[in-house]
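Build the 3D complex.
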Amino acid sequence: MELPESHQNIVHKVCRIYTRDRACYDDLFQEISIQLWQAYPKFRGESKFSTWMYRMALNTAITSYRKEKRYKHQMDISNFPNASIAEPYDGTSDHQMTTLYQAIGELNDIDKALVLLYLEDKNYQEISETLGISEVNARVKMNRIKKKIKTMINP
Amino acid sequence: MDALDQFKRKWKDQSKNFIQYDKEEIIDILKRKSSNLVKWIFVFGVLEFALWASLSLVFRDQSFNELSNSEIFSNFSIGLELLSFGILGYFLVVFYRNYNRISMVDNTQQLMSKILKTRKTVRLYVTLNLLLLFIGTFTSLILLVNYDPEIVATIKDIQAMQPDKSFYLRLALVTIVVLTAAAMLILLIYWLTYGTLLRRLKANYKLLQETED
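Done.
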């Protein structure tokens, strides 16, 4: 199975929000790739390939066992694969993205999944179907997360 | 527009900064060892079934062949053995069926529920085995003390020399202490292995369920 660029990015984004250092990032990237590769022959095209990928990647991230140190506010940004930004945004934007990642990093695993799907412009029906919660609850939860992130970014 | 919405465009733009692996690199990644939780649940489950099944085999064989000549004890041993294998067969089928139902394409809540259900099958099997161990040991002791000619004679000799009414009480106490210590040890091993392995999954499952409450 070949992963086109747009699909590899889905895996990268999931790894980026669920891990705090390079080693864990690589492990999770590998684990998601293996899961995708194993499940791909069973993909019947009932849903969009990207939807299927979000589900696989998020499920792997949420259910996998990861041996991570518990350290807060110490995400080592320089160690991530996308850190050596070739053409950076203007300094402010780059800093803003770092702050956003740090804020997302403070959320629990389920809230991280909600934020990711929201940032990826998925509608609430798709979010609720991916996580197995009702649409109303997904909406309520997302509003709470938005407020939480807002406080974290602009304390 | 709130803070998070303002990030949406930047969020999409960042994609060009991610490393893109080519086909050969992806193949390399796939060759590495998987550390998937579901796989470990399956491996641990199979190992546990094998361990407990062989433990009961060794235990019952020894009891049956070496411990006593009493017929009632032999019948009890055979009954217990048949029961153990019946339980093992049933749980193996349920375990394999539950494992087969796990699919990473399910929604997150369903997936976690299925993983926990598969794990629960093994836990129930081990709990039943521990219960059988307790009941089996106690009943064996009672049968041996009352029906095994050699043991009955030995007890009579002991009681003749040292008439002590609390003999049975002490015997029961020692058995309880030994079995409880064994059970505690097993629970500690479980807590260290499954506890660590499933901590994150259980916490996330609880979070999702709380959302729905």
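Helices of chain B lie at 3-13, 23-31, 37-67, 71-101, 108-147, 149-161, 167-212.
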